[in-house]
Amino acid sequence: MGLNIPRDLAAWQARERRRHPARQLARRLKRPAPAPVWVARNRPDPQVAVLLEQRTGPVRAALVDPLRHLPEIGAMVVAPFDLNGTVPATWSVSQHSEIHLGRDFIAGRVILATSHASTLAQDVYQQAINRGIEFWVVQARILNPYAPPLPEGGRLLAWSDSDAEFWASGRSDIQTTVVGSQLLWLAQQQRVPYLSEGNRPLYLGQTSASGLSRAGLARAAITFCHTTHGAYRPHPDETDHVSKLEHATFEGLGIDVDRAAQPLDQIARPVTSACSTGLLEAAARGLPAFVWYPRPPAWLHDLWQRYGLRPWGGEPTPAPILPTAQPAHTVAHIIRERCV
Fold first, then answer.
1. Could you tell me if 322 and 185 are in contact, meaning their C-beta atoms sit under 8 angstroms apart?
2. Helices marked H in the chain
3. Which of 61, 177, 296, 299 has the fewest Cβ atoms nearer than 10 Å?
């Protein structure tokens, strides 16, 4: 099994619009002005750039952590949000109406991103291709068939051989390198003693980008929390009006909604979800982690098996097998080979 749409980005985008008609309508009604772009540099002539489209832990671990192992190479971070406080205070941060690699990345050799699917990423990708700059995709999360296709002729830095095979989906134009998961490697260094008494399970919320519908995810969370007296932890992206109404509905049904917004590395209780990356993160830390989704589709069963995720009610998910070398260090080594 692999991606539903393994090559055609336009077809993938059209499918996403069909899957989320309300989101598309809201965007058209708002008619937002072009979003500003922030650029941060540690030197005036960076050779490697990171396209940081989210502040989440998985994305930072995949894209930003390798930069810490490249003190001798100039680096740049591009984001659709203010980077002050995200990059070291010694870096210069500027805001622009658009990204222009001919101005901001003259010496550039490599750009790292988690995909080329968003509007900003497509802009950066097209400019990179036109200027002969390599565009590498670094895996940040577990993969399902609804993930966007990889860029033509791209390079993928994957967690495992199975992930590389799944995302490439039989394409011969993709170069893949297995580096491991920095997120899970860090989690393994933060193993915690687990005390089972009095620890109610926590159901991790997910967005519909997971490939499952909002309604299906809500039903799964309600069923699980009612059955186990568990609590619901909203996904960090669940800040929109519909999500807030959903949380209020959960509370009206007697479900505790964990609004503390604690990072997963500060949680010490059993965790469950349909297919959240946080499950592997918890398992790497030594916590009981399980999957739960009533009548899962075939692709979800395949995902559970691919990552060794165990269903609620049995033995917990085993800790993932990780490389001995820190993945961020491995990625930095690959970048150094290209840039020096």
1. yes
2. 9-19, 21-30, 57-63, 101-104, 119-131, 161-168, 182-188, 214-228, 241-252, 277-284, 298-307, 327-339
3. 177
Report how far residue 8's alpha carbon sits from residue 19's, in angstroms, rounded to the nearest whole number: 17
Name 96's bridge partners. Answer: 37
What is residue 31's predicted lDDT score, i.e. its pLDDT? 54
- Where do we find the tokens 């970048």? 335
Distance CA 140, CA 249 (A): 31
| Residues counted in the chain | 340
Calculate mean pLDDT across residues 25-29: 53
What was the pLDDT predicted at 34?
A: 72
Say how far residue 336 (Cα) sits from the centre of its chain: 24
Mean pLDDT of 40-54: 96
